Amino acid sequence: MMKIRKAQIADVAAIVALLANDPLGKLREDYRNPLPEKYYKAFNNISADSNQELMVAVDEENAIIGTLQLTFIPYLTYQGGIRAQIEAVRVREDYRGKSIGKQLFQWAIHRAQEKGSHLIQLTTDKKRPEAVKFYQNLGFNATHEGMKLHFPKSID
Fold first, then answer.
1. FRET pair for 153, CA 20 to 30 Å: which of 3, 28, 47, 138?
2. Residue 97 to residue 102: CA distance in whole angstroms
3. What is the greatest pairwise CA distance in the chain?
4. Coil, strand or helix at 49
5. SS3 sequence, 97-155?
6. Angle at 23 between CA 62 and CA 69, to 5 degrees
7. Per-residue model confidence as pLDDT tens digits over 89-114
């Protein structure tokens, strides 16, 4: 039986391992032991922000098998509405195909409604066509064209 709970600082290494265990994640994450301090700093910043919810899915033995981050964006449009954004969804390789991702999304959708969001959105890399199909099966529609501007890597 899977349970979804708020991530704790002790979960950071396992979360980063999930993020890095992906063809695109391998290119952008720095997963090693010991884990770089910047991940713990990021976790503390996320935890301190009331509009951020970093969640983990755990199995019966409390092992982390999935993760996602849910962000609430308050704004003036939609009469002062709240938009929910789903990011960094990953399921452990040996748990894929067992509805863990679907359960994470159902939790996020319910949570967004509970917080009064008028919509929930996500972005996905065009290099992940299987993810696009998964999101469409959950009811998400590609209604907008997303654009990004990446900045040069900062020097630590």
1. 47
2. 10
3. 47
4. coil
5. CCCHHHHHHHHHHHHHHHCCCCEEEECCCCCCHHHHHHHHHCCCCCCCCCCCCCCCCCC
6. 45
7. 999 999 999 999 999 999 999 999 99
- Asked whether the beta carbons of 88 and 69 are under 8 A apart, the reply is yes
Kindly state the tokens that stand for 151: 């900045």
Provide the domain limits for residue 38: 3-137
| Cβ contacts of 97 within 8 Å, gap of 6 or more | none
Q: Is the pLDDT of residue 22 over 60?
A: yes
CATH number of the domain bearing residue 24: 3.40.630.30
Chain mean pLDDT for the chain: 94
Within-domain flag for 146: no
Between 44 and 155, the more confident residue is: 44
- Look at the block and give the residue holding tokens 């994470």: 104
Return the pLDDT at 146. 86
State phi, psi for 58 to the nearest 5 degrees: -125, 150
Q: What is the tally of structural domains in the chain?
A: 1
